[in-house]
Amino acid sequence: MNTTTLELVFPAVGGWEVISRNDGGDITSDAGLLLVSLADKKLGLPQAMAEAISDPRQKSKVEHGIIDMARERIYAICQDYEMQTIWTHCAMIQP
């Protein structure tokens, strides 16, 4: 049993303090995407990926840009939604 408590403090939202702790017992949530989103803003990995990938598609016909697809894939993998994102990604790139 792990007795280490990790506390992460996020920027305030609407005047509310946002703190994440792992002392809640055996619970699960998608709240981990808050951390992923903050890392995304700080590191810019999806943006860097989108800038490195050429997109030969006709811009007027593009519904989901490269950055949207990169961000969707990265976030899904971080949440361990690997199979779900494959189907979502396939649906997004259908003509």
What does it look like?
Helix content is 47%, strand content 14%. By secondary structure, it is α+β, with helices and mostly antiparallel strands. It is elongated. It has a two-stranded antiparallel sheet with strand order 1-2. Helix 2 packs across helix 3 and helix 3 runs antiparallel to helix 4. The mean pLDDT is 79. The longest helix has 13 residues. It contains 4 helices and 2 strands, in the order ββαααα.
Question: Concise description?
Answer:
The chain has 95 residues and is of the alpha+beta class.
Q: Which properties best describe this structure?
A:
alpha+beta, 95 residues
Proportion of helical residues: 40-55%
Arithmetic mean of pLDDT:
79
From the alpha carbons, calculate the radius of gyration and give it in angstroms: 17 Å
Give the CA-based shape: elongated
Read across the widest sheet, the strand sequence of neighbours is 1-2
Number of helices: 4
**Secondary-structure element order, as H and E?**
EEHHHH
Which blocks of ≥5 consecutive residues have pLDDT under 50?
none
How are the secondary structure elements laid out?
Blueprint: E1 7-13, E2 16-21, H1 32-43, H2 45-52, H3 66-78, H4 82-93
Antiparallel strand pairs: 1-2
Helix pairs in contact: 2-3, 3-4
